Amino acid sequence: MSLIVQKYGGTSVGDSDRIAQVAEHVARTKRHGNQVVVVVSAMGKSTDELISLAGQVSKTRPGREMDMLLTSGERISMALLCMALADLGVQANSFTGSQAGIITDCDHTKAKILEVKGDRLREALARDVVPVVAGFQGVSTSKDVTTLGRGGSDTTAVALAAALGAECCEIYTDVSGVFNADPRLVPAARKLGKVSFEEMLEIAATGGRVLALRSVEYARNHQVALHVRSSFTWEPGTWIVREDPSMEQAIVSAVTHDISQAKITVSQVPDKPGIAARLFRGLADHSINVDMIEQNTSVSGHTDISFTVPRADFALAHSVARDLSRQVEASDITADESIGMISLIGAGMKTHPAIAAQMFETLASQEINIEMISTSSIRISCVVGERDVERAVQALHESFALAR
Amino acid sequence: MSLIVQKYGGTSVGDSDRIAQVAEHVARTKRHGNQVVVVVSAMGKSTDELISLAGQVSKTRPGREMDMLLTSGERISMALLCMALADLGVQANSFTGSQAGIITDCDHTKAKILEVKGDRLREALARDVVPVVAGFQGVSTSKDVTTLGRGGSDTTAVALAAALGAECCEIYTDVSGVFNADPRLVPAARKLGKVSFEEMLEIAATGGRVLALRSVEYARNHQVALHVRSSFTWEPGTWIVREDPSMEQAIVSAVTHDISQAKITVSQVPDKPGIAARLFRGLADHSINVDMIEQNTSVSGHTDISFTVPRADFALAHSVARDLSRQVEASDITADESIGMISLIGAGMKTHPAIAAQMFETLASQEINIEMISTSSIRISCVVGERDVERAVQALHESFALAR
After folding, report:
1. Which of A71, A171, B230, B282 measures 20 to 30 Å from B392, CA to CA?
2. Which candidate from A72, A82, A96 shows the least CB-CB separation from B76?
3. Which residues fall within 8 angstroms of residue A277, CB to CB, at 6 or more apart?
4. pLDDT tens digits, one per residue of A186-225
5. Chain B partners of A75 at a C-beta cutoff of 8 Å?
6. Does B71 touch chain A (CB under 8 A)?
7. Of A16, A61, A82, which is closest to B62 when you measure between CB atoms?
8. Inter-chain contact A62–B83, Cβ cutoff 8 Å?
9. Residues of chain B contacting residue A93, judged by C-beta atoms under 8 Å apart
């Protein structure tokens, strides 16, 4: 008998009809001879509604109380799912993060999991009861209710799968899997049957929104096989698994894009030690996440530093950079909010040096200017103008024959 | 420094404005030099909405899951209140029933409190933090979440006041206190400044809806002084306290009415031992609560038995009684859904035998027919036709000079 952890997101349990369908699927999975542990998110947009309610009553919104507030959402969805299962003759018990033994640090609203006990879940499974666990939440070492931050329910599911030794962790969502390009931009985008953890990490980090980066990291670290699939069509989705060395690797698996960033360039910076450190310490002190950083070769004792930041932090980052550029007597600062980042990802890329050349040629043939370049062993990313993103993704998808 | 437990009902925390007003009042109470423990219900009608949601997904609705579902409501109101208090510079922490140490039996949806630990509340008070506790909920001896049933939040507040040795327990609601008649029926109805636990028990049991009977019993058993008052006007309300023997007692404190019952009469029952036992055992086996019972003197070996039941159980009670009347060869069964019960309550009544006579005379002067009578040492109740209830209440209020 296999143990499967199934995680259902907010849209999958968005109303009573959806909950009934999820209950049917859990019952079916059990009927096929599996043990099932279910993890649920709050229904639909209910977490957003609670956040807006908090905004109405408070400016300070203490973290401990935000966590108490937001953890009510999963209580509702999990209790309703257990009731729907009871009507199908499947015994199910709901468990809060605390009851499931998900122990976290005390960092309210973005707690990290320290330990997964899971005793009550094992005991329920032994009694042939399906445990339905609240995603996104835990209990801190000081016995207060915590939440894991956005995307936390995926992490709950992966952590439980690891702790209980599940065969796999199924992440049910409103798309049918991971695609090798955004289907809204590329009609020929193809669903991937299988990707490695490393590829999925790069996909998640460069604009593929299907899985939270953190849950993929947790799955890789604990070797939990993930299966991302749709709770609307129930068709097989995308497996995210350990790289199999015996297998021929796709040279390029996917092309992703991200238009959530902005670019800032500090020009003609005196090329002296410590200047870059001062700039990025200043940004870090304002909790601004810098993604890509590029420094050009020094010409006559001066250099240019470019970096990208989330657009939400753009104004703040711009002012921090401006202050610093005055202090270090840089000649100029330029900023561009209308950029996009295009990435090619593929585990086979490391052994095929011509990929970068082909990528740049493809963009050149479309007369798309490349503003920044960054690479990892399995990824090449280019910053281009936002208006060029759609064409770039389409051209790369075709050039690398990703429609197969 | 006095410790005051303040309980706010659903309408008192019905929206963000109401929550802000409650926060102001808690801050004010603290500023006046008191320690405060707050107990809250779920916002407005949210518990009813959750019950309706459960009805959409499930017919069976297992009690354990209903309790998990319904306990989400107080989580929201208490977290929001803590946030509003934080904005006023008052440190507050929310506590679930479990965190507050409210230990119950395992009778889901109507659990009974076995013990109140309250360690975390005492610890919060010692740190000058206001504990805001979820009403209506606890944790069972088997570590599952439980609810105390309707009116449970009042009981939570009284139980905490008893366990923490509070000076008093303030019950904030949408009326300004306990009135000596329903102000909707009697414009001259007067708010009572003080009533004894015994009188309040009779008032609650005979139609006065301000406090749940159970919380008054708990308060009497643990000698917790209650103060029922309005969270809309904040004026002083009604104190419910131990009877003070040195005090002159009002002969009649209040006139109450209740139109939620129906009457069934089994006529010409053979007057043999065991017949009444069979009838009421039959009703008890169907979980039908019988309120008033009356058996007339036997005439020629036969007797009549009348009783009242909640109208919701009327059809079932009628059929149980009909079955039995056939078995015991009673001649007839009559039923009346349109009755009302009028009660006079007063601690001084036991030493004034003429009250009953004056009550019957008053009703007679209005040509109101009395169908059943029942008494306790501090109460006289009469069943009349439902259409006569309003007139009866008005006439009695005037006859006993309750407008003063």
Report:
1. B230
2. A72
3. none
4. 999 999 999 999 999 999 999 888 898 999 999 999 999 9
5. 68-69, 71-72, 75
6. yes
7. A82
8. yes
9. 64-65
Angle at which helix A72-87 crosses helix A46-57, to 10 degrees, equals: 150
Task: Say if A58 is an interface residue toward chain B (CB within 8 Å).
Answer: yes
A94 to B66: CB separation less than 8 angstroms, yes or no = no
pLDDT at A229 over 80: yes
In angstroms, rounded to a whole number, what is the distance separating the alpha carbons of residues B184 and B169? 27
Which string of DSSP letters, residue by residue, matches B105-163? Answer: -S-TTS--EEEE--HHHHHHHHTTPEEEEETTEEEETTS-EEE--TTHHHHHHHHHHHH
Cβ distance A79 to B66 less than 8 Å, yes or no, reads yes
What mean pLDDT is predicted for residues A25-33? 97
Q: Which CATH architecture has domain B3-174?
A: 3-Layer(aba) Sandwich (3.40)
For residue A316, what pLDDT is reported?
93
Angstrom distance (rounded) from CA B205 to CA B214: 10
Whether chain A has a CB inside 8 Å of the CB on B64: the answer is yes
Q: Distance of CA A217 to CAs A114, A140, A282, Å?
A: 15, 22, 28
Q: For residue B339, what is the enclosing H or E element? A: strand B339-345
**Residue of chain A nearest B16, judged by CA positions:** A57
Average pLDDT rounded to a whole number, residues A130-158: 96
The angle, 0 to 180 degrees and rounded to 10, between the axes of the packed helices B354-365 and B389-399 is: 130
Tell me if B64 and A16 make a contact (CB, 8 A cut-off): no
Across the interface, whether the CB atoms of B60 and A94 are under 8 A apart is answered no
SS3 at position A375: strand
With a pLDDT cut of 70, the percent of chain A lying above it is: 99
Quote the minimal CA–CA distance from A20 to chain B in Å: 7
Question: By C-alpha distance, which of A86, A95, A93, A85 is closest to A116?
Answer: A95
Is residue B114 within 8 A of residue B105, CB to CB? The reply is: yes
| Confidence bin at A289 (pLDDT 50/70/90) | confident
Judged by a CB distance cut-off of 8 A, whether residue A94 touches chain B is yes
Q: How far apart are CA B152 and CA B165, in angstroms?
A: 20
pTM (2 decimals)?
0.89
A53 closest CB neighbour out of B16, B78, B93:
B16
**What are A355-402's pLDDT values in tens digits?**
988 999 999 999 999 999 988 889 999 999 999 999 999 999 999 999
Reported as a single tens digit per residue, the pLDDT across A325-337 is 888 777 788 999 9
How far, in Å, are A84, A273, B243, B379 from residue B250 at the CA level?
55, 91, 11, 13
Distance in Å, alpha carbon of B289 to nearest chain A alpha carbon = 28
Using the 8-state DSSP alphabet, how is residue A13 labeled? G
CA distance A160 to A154: 10
Of A60, A69, A83, the CB nearest to B76: A69
Rg (CA), chain A: 23
Contacts of A94 in chain B (CB under 8 A): 64-65, 68
The beta-carbon neighbor of A65 closest among B50, B72, B79 is: B79
Is the pLDDT score of A1 beyond 70?
yes
Predicted local confidence at residue B328, as pLDDT: 79
At A282 the pLDDT is 87
pLDDT at A248: 66
Q: Which residues of chain B carry a pLDDT beneath 50?
A: none
User: Do B174 and B137 meet the contact criterion of CB atoms below 8 Å apart?
Assistant: no
Q: Hey, which residues does B48 pair with through a beta bridge?
A: none
State pLDDT tens for residues A120-142: 999 999 999 999 999 999 999 99
Q: In the A/B pair of chains, how many CB contacts fall below 8 A?
A: 125
A314: pLDDT strictly greater than 90:
yes
Q: How far apart are CA B296 and CA B265, in angstroms?
A: 11
**Which pLDDT value is given to residue B261?**
94
